[in-house]
Amino acid sequence: MKKTGLIAALLMGLACAAFMAACGSETEKAASEPEPSGPKYHCSIEIRCDTILDNMDKLAEGKRELVPEDGLILYVDNAEFTEGESVFDVLQRECQSRKLHFEYVESKVYESAYIEGIGNLYEFDCGELSGWVYSVNGDFPSYGCALYKLKDGDEVKVLYTCDLGADVGATTNEE
Amino acid sequence: MRNKDAFSGCHPAVNFTYFFLVLLCSMIFMHPVCLLISLACSLSYSIYLNGARAARFSLRYMLPLLLLTALINPMFNHEGVTILAYLRSGNPLTLESIIYGVAAAVMLVTVIFWFSCYNAVMTSDKFVYLFGRVIPALSLVFSMTLRFVPRFKAQAKIVSSAQKCIGRDVTNGGPLDRLKHGLTILSIMTTWALENAIETADSMRSRGYGLKGRTAFSIYRFDRRDGYMLGFFMACGVYIAAGAASHGLYWQYYPRLKGELGGLFTLSLFIVYLALCSAPLIFDLTEDRKWKYLGPTA
Fold this sequence. Notes:
The complex is a heterodimer. By secondary structure, chain A is α+β, with helices and mostly antiparallel strands. Chain A has three helices and seven strands. Chain A folds into two domains: 1-32; 40-168, Ferric Hydroxamate Uptake Protein, Chain A, domain 1, CATH 2.170.130.30.
């Protein structure tokens, strides 16, 4: 009986270690975030999912209620940011301050954050070519949104595509 | 061999059908009410069968497992409309992901309980009786595999005791000696296991196992009671399958907890599911009562 207890303790320890590791990697990131300082800039942010409205038949079950009728999920006229902040930083901050659901993963390959879902609308929820793409001042950059440094007065659009970007005007670029 | 309980005394086909249905349902239905029904039935049946050992096992291993899964799922899954807080990474901690973690853990624990009941009721002779003719090789391998762990443990104890007599057990000597002794015992055990497997195979072949036209002695009889029970299980299974196919047990965890809960049809499905899951326990308890009142002490 004593032995089984030991094994159980060992297993629990292992699981806890895994859990700590998961926490640890997330704490590290938070510590390296720069403190906001310097002059304040402004940009506009628009999050839309119009393309889903045209592809309602492909939308995953149970997600219908999440799609607003006009396709507009969020519009922020003058989002504040400081020198050196990226599209991702501002997006995440604006979503968090409004308690709007926003999930990303760190992509090692692209050295950037990859947005998996906004407002519980996830990549692949509307067909296998669907997901989130972003544009700044009408251009679709070919790199991740955490690498794009914003300038004052930029217009950021985050759009849901159901066709790898072709239906929102991004020709070859994918977020 | 003495039966573990009254349900074990039923025909193996009845036992197997029951566990097949119950395990299948437990693995498929994620509806919280179904999970709770299955958990309650599997836990109480396994405690009825295995006594305090099962209760201890559930407290010591299953409860921590449940809590752990409930904790880990929201670390990696951030879907859901009810945002409770934000993790350090900036991803949301949602109520839905926590509840989904608990549900998945309950399902896992339930299936483990059902298998502990299965092991107590469906002994390997019953399994070989059922499948020995259809899939002779596979059913033999299956029952040998299931027997392997307890046999290996028992033999390891014997070998370890024998080694202790000559001062070569894992408890004797310094750390290096103990490691050496451990390896020796492992080597002995491996040899024994390989030889034993070959011996078993030879022994089964020499008895003509799996040959055409060969019959096996069995004391199982399919009587009217078994027929009723099998019919009852089948009817329950068909009703639940039909209900599930027509979305009577629909439930979604993401993005919002939602599903069938109140309707008359859904309610009837719950009742049938409960009847199916608790059937052996009810059967056992009524048999126990009968024995109490009609037994020699009365």
